[in-house]
Design a protein that fits this description.
heterodimer, A: 307 residues, mainly alpha, MetI-like fold, 2 domains, 79% helix, 0% strand, globular, B: 354 residues, alpha/beta, Rossmann fold, eight-stranded mixed sheet, four-stranded antiparallel sheet, transmembrane (chain A), transmembrane helix (chain A)
Chain lengths: 307, 354
């Protein structure tokens, strides 16, 4: 098991290098001068500008910039943004915001997705099943930007049930609406996956065997159907994280939540290559770690992948 | 093999009819099927795929998917209690405990994420209320009984870690764990190669000989019937076309379908000659011929066969030997004449028409 984990980590290193390099190159290639943009319409003294450029190594060749940035990232010297904010401080403030949002939306997604998926799978072609298929089809068909703004307008502006934006109302009030928007999107995929998997498992031969053993329906469900039906769902757990982070970029920006997603969005706008790479690396590392955990968990649940 | 004229049947299926609901009209998969099973007896239900042999036993055990399946009529009495009328809860005390089942494809019929030990132990835990440790001990004993080497280690293994033959032994261990009165084996050896098949059948016969357990063996393989059955029920298109003692049915088949099956079996004597086959294919449930379902493939068919649906009638009443076995077949031919070996039983009329 330990060897397996080490191998997985070793395999993640080259991927990490490619990802960070690619992201940094993309930001580097963006048009416009980030320092010049800081001053807006106002005149910028050339000496100040030169000092700023030197501070951020902007006049160095691309490779040197990349290597310096990587050194700073891994030694924990994150430095400041172009505007002067301490990046380490920013991360400390923003990580909890994104974590709360992610956990709350995960909660919505998994609660609804599993509940509806399992129920619909059991009562195939029943009313809940048909509604689930229709609702998830709608959710998946509507672009997330549309649903996000619609939710904000309906529940925030019109009905005034929940705050329109910001985190002034604290947790969980301020987070409910954005978490629900992300959660509902994830729920659509998860609900369908769970339903299909349950439908397949219910008709499996070993369920018939379990019935022929005279087991109660409850025992058949918990001991025989669910452990098999939820195997593909576990894999989804890891893949889902990528979608969660992508969702956070849009949602945090729209709902003005000062989390990592919003930070990333702003940093891209400001051409803050360093910050973008730090955030991407953070997302990448957590993605690798969660998928590693999922793989380990999968091995625990499914004996067939253990060998 | 066993004499059972005086004992009561342990399981008696009467007039069982099962339909499948479809978008158009319901299909009759099992049509008025009856058979009796006596303690210690091995009853083979012989038929091609789609003849309704599996559906009938699944309906009896209450594990048929309903819907689309539907039991239209009939009864299945275990020790005088009708399994089909029983509430689910009461039936679970019998099916799984006194009546158990073995299925064809052991890889898909065993839960892939549970160790075989846990799956065998489950029966002891649910039906006997044994504790975890004791149930596991019993599971190990069962694995040893079906001759799985190193049962103490193997009990922790999962189904995919066993070979096909070993896996079928595990199925057998699971089904025999509670020392049942009736074992329903649904094509238990079909997925195995011939040598392993023989080993499994031998093992089954040996374990059966130690108890009074009765076995319902569903098969399409005449050779299996020849090897292990006491009594044979031949099914065609959902109906019983012939039933009787194995030796009698196999030596003097009454129904032309049984005769066709026997003729199409390869043997050493037939070496070098072309093997006979039954012309045509079994009818689909959506288009079962009128009258006798077999008439379209029958060499002896005559006009009335398309009009009259033959009922099972007792045959061989003339000779005391066959009458004792309660032999019957569903055919319009002169069956007494056929089984006595005096002729094909074909009617004069049909000869005139040919």
């Amino acid at each position: 098991m330990l060897g397996y984990i080490l191998r997985r980590i070793a395999a993640a290193i080259p991927i990490g290098l490619i990802v960070t390099f690619g992201v940094f190159a993309l930001v580097f290639l963006m048009p416009g001068d980030p320092i010049r943009a800081l001053a807006g319409d106002k005149p910028f003294p050339p000496t100040v500008m030169a000092a700023k450029r030197a501070q951020f190594h902007l006049d160095d060749p691309f490779f040197v910039q990349y290597l310096l940035m990587m050194r700073d990232t891994f030694t924990g010297h994150f430095g400041t943004t172009f505007a002067g904010a301490d990046i380490g401080e920013q991360l400390k403030l923003r990580i909890p915001v994104t974590l709360r949002l992610a956990l709350l939306s995960y909660f919505f997604e998994w609660l609804c997705g599993l509940l509806f998926g399992i129920y619909a799978g059991f009562r195939r072609n029943g009313i809940v099943d048909r509604l689930l298929l229709l609702a998830t089809l709608l959710i998946l068909a509507i672009p997330s930007l549309v649903s996000t703004f619609t939710a904000q307008y309906v529940f925030g502006v019109k009905l005034k049930w929940l705050p329109v934006s910001g985190i002034l109302d604290g947790f969980p009030t301020s987070y409910l609406l954005p978490a629900m928007v992300i959660g509902v999107l994830g729920f659509a995929g998860l609900g369908r996956l769970t339903r299909t998997s349950v439908v397949e498992t219910v008709n499996a031969d070993f369920v018939k065997t379990a019935r022929s053993k005279g087991l109660s329906e409850g025992r058949i469900l918990w001991r025989h159907i669910l452990p098999n039906a939820l195997l593909p769902v576990i894999t989804y757990l890891g893949l889902d994280l990528a979608g969660m982070f992508a969702g956070a970029i849009i949602t945090e920006s729209i709902f003005n939540l000062p989390g990592l997603g919003q930070f990333l969005f702003q940093s891209i706008q400001m051409k803050e290559g360093g910050v973008v790479v730090i955030l991407t690396t953070l997302a990448f590392v957590s993605f690798i770690v969660i998928n590693l955990l999922v793989d380990v968990l999968y091995g625990v649940v499914d004996p067939r992948v253990r060998a | 093999m066993t004499v059972h004229t005086t004992t009561e049947p342990i399981l008696e299926v009467k007039d069982l009819t099962v339909e499948f609901e479809t978008a158009r009209k319901p299909l009759t998969a099992v049509d008025n099927v009856s058979w009796s099973l006596y303690p210690g007896q091995t009853l083979a239900i012989l038929g091609e795929s789609g003849s309704g042999k599996s559906v009938s036993t699944q309906a009896v055990a209450g594990i048929l998917d309903m819907p689309p399946g539907r039991i239209v009529s009939g009864s299945a009495s275990y020790r005088g209690q009708d399994l089909l009328q029983m509430p689910r809860k009461a039936r679970r005390k019998i099916v799984g405990d006194r009546i158990t089942m073995v299925f064809q494809d052991s890889l898909s019929a065993l839960n892939p994420v549970q160790s075989v030990g846990a799956q065998i132990a489950e029966s002891y835990r649910v039906h006997r209320g044994l504790g975890r440790r004791e149930a596991r001990e019993r599971a190990i004993e069962m694995l040893a009984k079906v001759r799985i080497p190193a049962p103490h280690q193997r009990v922790h293994d999962y189904p995919h870690q066993f070979s096909g033959g070993m896996r079928q032994r595990v199925m057998l261990a699971m089904a025999l764990a509670l020392d049942p009165d009736v074992l329903i084996a649904d094509e238990p050896t079909t997925a195995l190669d011939v040598t392993v098949q023989a080993q499994i059948l031998e093992l089954l016969a040996e374990l059966q000989s130690q108890t009074t357990m009765a076995v319902v063996l569903i098969t399409h393989d005449l050779r299996v019937v020849e090897d292990v059955a006491d009594h044979v029920v031949v099914m065609y298109a959902g109906r019983v076309v012939e039933q009787g003692r194995r030796d009698q049915v196999l030596t003097h088949p009454a129904h032309p379908y049984t005769e066709g099956l026997l003729k199409s079996m390869p043997s050493a004597e037939l070496k070098g000659s072309q093997l006979a086959t039954i012309a045509g294919t079994p009818p689909s449930l959506t288009s079962i011929p009128s009258g006798c379902a077999f008439r379209t493939r029958c060499a002896y068919a005559f006009e009335e066969c398309s009009v009259i649906k033959p009922e099972l009638i007792k045959i061989g009443s003339g000779s005391p030997d066959t009458a004792a076995a309660g032999r019957s077949a569903a055919c319009l031919l002169d069956l007494d004449q056929r089984v006595s070996g005096l002729g094909t039983g074909a009617r004069e009329v049909s000869a005139a028409h040919v």
